[in-house]
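User: Can you model how pyridoxal-5'-phosphate sits in this protein?
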Amino acid sequence: MLVEGRGCTLRDQFGNEYLDGNGSIWTNVHGHNHPTINAAIIEQLGKVAHTSFLGFTHEPAIRLAKELVDLVPNGKLTRAFFTDNGSTAIESAVRMALQYWKQNGRPQRDTLIAFDRAYHGDTLGAASLGGIPLFKGSGNDFGYRVISISSVEELTGLDANRIAAVIIEPLIQGSAGMRLWPQGMLKALDAWCQTQDVFLILDEVMTGFGRTGKMFACEHEDVVPDFLCLAKGITGGYLPFAATLTSERVFEGFLGEPDEGRTFFYGHSYAGSQLGCAAALASLRVFRDEQVLEQLPAKIARLRELMGDLPRFRQCGMIAAMTVDSPDLSMGTKVCLAARKHGLLTRPVGNTIVLMPPLCVTLEEIERMVAALRAALAEITAMQR
Ligand SMILES: *Cc1c(COP(=O)(O)O)cnc(C)c1O
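Assistant: Here's the modeled complex, given as structure tokens:
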């Protein structure tokens, strides 16, 4: 049982301390118990915790929408739609894309393109886009057409007139085991989408908010999508909250008189929660006040120096991974369990071990994390011999 946290450290019920090596499943950004985010949530609690977003709005949501769209280069994204987790951030983008074409003259555009080994969430609609059998449950026939491809080249043979949108995890597929895309791939995908006037949906649920070294992964290749899906790190890892950013063109495609039925009917009860907005605004303030992004290059370099020689090492900014080559598919689990005894918490993806600490991690904490990982690896591999 984890009972307490401060910065990158978590404490269990016996008082043992651990470094949070995967940022509490890729959510935590500025560390646990951050004074700025704590204070913002407490201040908001003193006003009101939650009010319905159906037919109402509130100041924290308006401010947050503005700050989020202003973070994305080139001004194309002007609108934010709030939900409460990564899967619904994806589903609202997909449903907006499908409904947009349906009511704006291209109803034949009913198909989504997703990538092999993709992971876009666990709800039925998001899982339909997934390409990892383990997470797909009963299959892929949940109601809308999805074509799975494994490279941009495969787009050439497809009839773009049937395609509503292409969805991808930019730069790196997370749940597939930290698989890096070739450099320039996102740019090429964006070019195809623009030529064919097909929507590009970027799933930055994992990569958003500094994880790749820039605020958003798409900045690395100068791409601005039609839909940008954000969740996990949006509140600094404090509260369930998500946003789907989109363009003025998409927004206008839903305008009309109520009886025309052009409304986007999608509103979870806790969407746009005031507490979530307050936490997200505070997290963005910490990015500015503590110059979080400016400090990342040194940390990224340190991770590479310390881990570069590990088997199948790969890295995308503050996301570092290595894979234990073994026919024993529980090696990842064994290494992570052994690492606990050395004060490191992380979770494997198969035999891949991930280090994705909160961005506030110090160089010294990075050293301790890697030392713990190496000690665990040595113990487990010695036992195999
Ligand atoms: C975690 C994740 C999701 C799903 O987010 P939830 O909040 O867990 O529903 C979607 N896409 C990616 C890339 C993720 O890493």
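A couple of observations from the model: The mean pLDDT is 96. Residues 74 and 224 are 8 Å apart (CA to CA).
User: Helpful, thanks.
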